[in-house]
Amino acid sequence: MTRANVLRIERSPALIRSQVLETLRQAILDRRLAPGQRLIERELVELTGVSRTSVREALRELAAEGLVTAIPNRGTIVTSVSAEEARQLYEVRSSLEALAGRLFVEHASPAQRKALARALERVEKLVAKGQPILAAKDTFYDVLFDGGGNEALKSVAGSLHARVSVLRSLSMTVPGRLEHSVAELRAIVAAVDAGDAEAAAAACARHVEEAGRAGQLALSQQDKA
């Protein structure tokens, strides 16, 4: 596949705006658009095959998510996350997910508990096949936050999702992190099955803390490269 069509958008007028946004977002998460890289509208129009207006709207949304940054006199660049910013993001995420785990045990329905177990099974199957798991983990988190029944918590966690996703993708490049991540999810489900809210909270926090350590390690290795 040539560079000219690697980000090409399929023509679908009803969905084109969301397609552009998702394509550029995924390119950032996959690091095809690298941290610090300048994003030139004309080039993105050429790469995606859509209008400048569609690209501009997508960049505006990505800026709101924190994935790109508009810099005076320089234009728009892919946001870089420092080690200290990563530490702070994971610190907040740890507290949020610990609360999510506790609330899930306290409020989730039997159907939601089954859905969490199925989400874990999906992650395990993808690992066994050597396929990417971040989307499946998103489903796991969606079930976890939905089951807690706290909309304010979901909203706050959602506002961090895009920036944390960049770090999650990076953390998975650390050797052994994939297997440890799955084991940590199993611990969360085991605590839920046992009806132990405190253990679920601790397992959720531990999962984020370990991901944070991996993410910061990957960032430090990237800086040395």
How would you describe the overall organization of this protein?
A three-stranded antiparallel beta sheet has the order 1-3-2. 72% of the residues lie in helices and 4% in strands. The mean pLDDT is 89. It has two domains: 3-78, Winged helix-like DNA-binding domain superfamily/Winged helix DNA-binding domain (Arc Repressor Mutant, subunit A, Orthogonal Bundle), CATH 1.10.10.10; 83-224, Four Helix Bundle (Hemerythrin (Met), subunit A). It contains nine helices and three strands, in the order αβααββαααααα. The chain is mainly alpha-helical and 225 residues long.
Layout of helices and strands, plus pairs?
Elements: H1 16-29, E1 38-39, H2 41-48, H3 52-65, E2 68-71, E3 75-78, H4 83-107, H5 110-129, H6 134-148, H7 151-171, H8 177-193, H9 197-224
